[in-house]
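Re: the 142-residue chain
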Amino acid sequence: MELNSNQIQEILPHRYPFQLVDRVLDYEPGKWAKGIKCVSVNEMQFLGHFPQQHVMPGVLVVEALAQVGAIAILTEEENKGKIVFFGGIKNARFKKQIIPGDVIEMECELTERKGPVGYGKATAKVDGKVAVIAELTFAVQG
């Protein structure tokens, strides 16, 4: 099931300049989601990171991955209308710089659930090469 940017806004509370998922390519509620972000030089972070050599901040890539994971959680019937917060980030690795013009292919698989808390393995790739990996902890509230 594919979701466009307007459909994503019906699920996630994020708005400009912090909606970091342009399209969800597919998802299974409560299990996993795959999405993309098209990186543009016109994004605010490139005014200061870095003016002489634009590089997407790694923390924003991790946030984009978390938003993809939130799609997997918030598309579950019992979580519709709720908000998902970060509970933790473990073992984040930044393996490749992401620059304007790149399309980030993101996926997050939920690996464990304990009540309102979920854990996921997230990967961001550019041109099929791993750019960022992280283990994310989510907390559902609402």
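Helices lie at 5-11, 58-74.
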